[in-house]
Every structure is written in C-alpha cells, then in structure tokens.
User: What shape does this take?
Amino acid sequence: MSRKRRPTQVDVARQAGVSPAVVSTVLNGAGRGSVRVGPEAAARVRQAVRELGYVPNPVARNLAGGKNRILGVFTFESIFPIERRNFYFPFLIGVEAAAEERGYDLLLFTSASGPGSGRRIYRGGVNRLQLTDGAVLLGHEPDKSEPARLSDDGFPYVFVGRRELPGAEPSYVAADYAGGTGQVVTYLAELGHRRIAYLGTPSDREALRDRVAGFERSFAALGLDRAQAVRERLDPDDVTPDRLRSWTDAGVTAFLAENDILARSLLAAADAGGFSAPRDFSFAVLGDPLEPSDDPPDWTSFKIPRQEMGRQSLEVLLDLLEDPSRAPLRRVLPCTLVPGASTDRAPTKGVMPT
Amino acid sequence: MSRKRRPTQVDVARQAGVSPAVVSTVLNGAGRGSVRVGPEAAARVRQAVRELGYVPNPVARNLAGGKNRILGVFTFESIFPIERRNFYFPFLIGVEAAAEERGYDLLLFTSASGPGSGRRIYRGGVNRLQLTDGAVLLGHEPDKSEPARLSDDGFPYVFVGRRELPGAEPSYVAADYAGGTGQVVTYLAELGHRRIAYLGTPSDREALRDRVAGFERSFAALGLDRAQAVRERLDPDDVTPDRLRSWTDAGVTAFLAENDILARSLLAAADAGGFSAPRDFSFAVLGDPLEPSDDPPDWTSFKIPRQEMGRQSLEVLLDLLEDPSRAPLRRVLPCTLVPGASTDRAPTKGVMPT
DNA sequence: CTGAAAGCGCTTACAG
DNA sequence: CTGAAAGCGCTTACAG
Assistant: This one.
C-alpha cells in the first residue's frame, strides 16, 4: 500500500551519465535557457528514460517553472446553484471544453462562505485565487472592490459579462445585450408596434444597462419617436392589472420584459385583468427564458451564447497569461433573435369596424 | 499592472520574526513532525499572513509532501457532458456542497484527452490526481487498471458507485440498486404480476449486476416462482413487436427496463404492435428516467439519491484522508420507489367473459 | 519551546 | 558543446 518511489530525473541522469540539466533539456526540447546537448548524449538520455520508465513529475515542473497550469473558476454565487442550474451550466461547459483543449485543469473555489459574507475572493485580506495562474470570474459580484483589488494586484482574470470597474480596466467576454434588445425592438417595429414599454428591474447592473441602452438606441435607429419608448423600473409586484390597463390605454402595444419574472408578472396581470397576449399586446423577454421550469415557454426572446462565452473567456485568459501587456482584452458576442408566440402584429386601435 | 511577486513563506517568517518552519506549523496546525509554537509567535505569524496577503502555494506544498486542501474530481467522461448533463449534475452539486462546508477547493481534471485515449487518470505514466490530497471518481471507467493502479500507489480516492476491482478494495458511496429493483418487483407483485421480464443491456457493470441481483433475490423473498423471472440481455433494436408478443404470449405481464433507452424501445414496439401500456402490460425503469428530455415521463421507477451520493462521497474521502487505515470505506444509500402511470394491475388472462 | 537545514523533483541562469 | 549549482516554495525530521 505504500507508494512506490518513482524514478526521478536524477536517476535518469546517472544512468545516462549526464547531468540533470541535460535530461531536462532533452525532454523539453531546446528552449530559452536550456543547455546544449549532443546527439549521442541525447540518445543515451532517451534510452535511460525508456529503461527506467521515467516520467517527469508535473508538480515539480510547475514549481520550478512558476506556473501550475491550473486556472481558477470563481462564481460569486454557488457554483452549482440548484435553482439556477440552467444559468451557469452552459458557461461552465464552455470553460471546461476550452480548458480541456488547452491542457489546463480547473480549480473551483467552493469554500467561500465566511460567516454571513457570501462568496468572496479576498478572505481575511488574502486573494484566494492566487494559487492559480489566472481565473475566470462568473456571476454578479456584490462588491466591486473585490475585482478592483484583483486588478490592483495584477492578478490575471477575465469576467464573463461586461464589467465597469472604477479605476480599473477589466478584461471580459460579454454578450451583446444592447444588440439583442435592438433586434427585438426592430422585430416588434416590423410587426407594426410603435409604442413599446420597457419593463425593467430597479437594478442597475451593466448587463441591464446595456439592454436599456439598446432599447433607446434602436428607437433612434429605426426613426421611431423616442417619446414612444416608455421606460419603467418595477418590482414584479408592481405589474398589476390596473397598471397594465393604464399602459395599454396610453397606447402601449408591446412590452419588453427585462427578465422572466417580470414576464410572468405581466402574464399574471393580463390574466387577472382579462387581457390576453398576443391578442391584446405583444411581449418579449430580453434573454433566454429559463426559469424556473425546464421546458421554456415559447416567448419571443434572444439567445445568449453562454457556452461560447465560457469558452472564449478561458481563451482570453490564456491570451492574457501569454502577454499581460495586452490587457484589457474584450470580446462582445452577438445574441440571436428568437421569434416566439408571444408577439404578433400590433392590435388595431379601438373596436374593429363591422 | 505588473504582477507583484507573491509573498512566500519566507516573507511571512521574516515579517513575523520567526523561521519558516514556524509559519508552516501555524498554518497546518500542530501535526506529526511539527515544531512547537508559542501563542504570541503564532499570533505574529497570523498577523503577518494577513498583512502580506500570503496564500500558501499548493504546488510547493504538494511537492514537499504536505496536504493542500484541494480535492480532485475526476470523471471518466466529460465533466459537463451536454447530452447527459442531468446525469452528473446532481453528483457535482452534492460534492460541491460538502466541499464548501468542509473548506476544501475542488480541482476538476479536464485535460484528459490524449490522442484517441479518452479520459485517463494516468497520462504518460503519471498520476494526474497527484496534486490533490485525494479524489472523487465519477462515471464509468473504461479501464479497471487505472483505479487499480491508484490503489497500488496508495492514492486516496472514493468511487461514486459500487466498484469491484481485481486485487484492490476501493472505497465507494453507492446507490442500492438491488434494493431499488426489489422495491419495484414487490410493487409489481402487489399489483398481481407474477411473470416479470427483466430487459437488460449486454453490459455487465456493477450497477447493472446489482439490479439483476435485486431482481432475482426479490422473487425468492416474495415467495414467487423463480422460473417466472425472465431475464433478457438485449440491444435496444432487439425489442421488436414480435419479441414483445412472444413475451406476452408466454405470460409476461410486466417488464423491468434497465434504462430509459430500453423503456423507449419497449414503448415503440408496443406502439408498432398494437399494444398499449399499462393496459396490456406494465413496465418500470430501474432508475431515474432522465434522458434525453427535460421533463421526465411519468413512469414507475426508483429515485437514485445522486446529490446525497456526491455529498457523502466527499465526506468519505475526508474520512479516508484522516485515517487511511480505515479503508475501504463503503456506504450504500437507499433508492426510493416512484410509482408512475406505466404500471397497473396485471391484466387478466384471455378475453374477458361477457 | 524554537531554529537551521535538508529535501521534494524539477528548470534555468551561470560558469566552464 | 556540457556540467555544477541555485532556486521554485513548501514540509519535516533533526539539532539545540
């Protein structure tokens, strides 16, 4: 049961009658700071390697080389959140696939929950990610100072999702929420909708700001009247039948729901108020409808390329490791319009003439 | 932006006015070969750690022979397999939750694909898990020699799922497939079924053998005629309408499908042959129906406690690390019968008298 | 109770 | 063209 001693570089060197440095060079190929090795010395080394069954110890290699070929994955929420599994899963699939291709292992930071503090990068003032070569950051950070400090420390990391950081220029791979929202607005405009309400949450995250920006920009781009772009900040409970009626009375024919919850509130209000979509109004969700049921409703929406975002964030991280001076590295991936059954032509005003 | 040099143990030692050995001891707790440290020296060390933001290098720790509080998760198939996401996900949730509670980080081994070789623990003869304190092994191993060698090397690991290893006694946390199968048979017997066919795959994995064993044992336990227990080994294509007819003609009133695929084949054959379940026969799946749709069909089955298996496998691993002499450690968790719409009372033989 | 030193198995400047 | 040596950052016997 005791672990057998593996042959080491020293054993090989002795057997081949050379120094360890020569063994190292033969195995790694002539590199930057490597010694020169004659052909017959190299042959002796290879022979000894074969005879002894020598395999270099990757741990020692890492120690000597300064890198450990471990990349961190840090989520500001539980890595495998049961309720939101469909949210993070595709990112992780992408990250894993890319890591596998590039020969890196992934360290999941799990033990983050200090007393009451939730998941933090710095625990007791110490950057826990430090033990990796670099890290991919996932999810909504409760505290901007954490990534800011990461930047200060010069630790290589990439955000999944666009981030603005006071005093720092983070690298990220983001989805083009503004563009996705614009596509939805354009689609609605083509269906004849002119007055559109954006139902947003009170939150002001980058991902949400981008949607608002896309909403407003697209009105201009389409030559629509900016005054017809209604913007609301609501809690789900704020979407009442009365509220819905006041919107439609004001001529709103289509709604953009910032997320699923708001879309469901809207539907509930419609139900309670005797409205029906898309007969009385159209609506779309600004992202993938994925919560909480497993079979998504057939709503007009746009697809966020989550898996590709995961993949590319890892690749950007590797680029960063190769040449840190290139930071910040940023990529914005397009979202895809998904037409669904929640949208239809704008209803004609008033009662149909008979 | 230039990366600051990571503080090392030496830096901490200097700042605290102690030797590196003292720092090491404070961080690892008083252990076997550790030095004794006074309370105020320990306090100075902790203070210095905080001030410097020191994090021990896990690679160095490992090389020097110590523990690094990193646990490995190795899957013999892709960790996040898109097609089978629902299969591994619950295990991982459990593993992560337990790791988080116990303060361990998780290293996912991803870069396994040598040329054509699939996922392997030993790559070029080295144990890749070596960097971790121990590992949880997940999924079906194509090659028994890999875990066997792990045992030979004395590397601590726990299988999720029962495993038999020639010449080794692996630790594992398994589901009680035999018991689950027995519950299903009992349930069918209560519904009046006496002749039951077990539709199995040609494969002979432990998890499948356990189901067969449960099938056969339960006949004895229920006092049923063992000759009525029909056992078949089939590919999904083998389940044809003709075959189905021959079984029912022979008096079979209920089927046990080893997996979803076989259950679907059975249903397809029924469809094509003019049969209908549960009118003409009952059937149950021996496990969670989870493939490939997201909303599982309402079949009689049993629930595999995947999340709990993940959680307990990590806990067993920690027990193992604490005291390796207790190996092998084994736990078998109960499965829960899930009655569904695919079973009903046994049809009466022949035509109903009018 | 504490420190100095060897050693884990490599890589890489640095002399010859 | 080649070797001896330092060093990566730890842990752990071993002296004091």
About this structure: Residues 9-65 of chain A form a domain with the 434 Repressor (Amino-terminal Domain) fold (CATH 1.10.260.40).
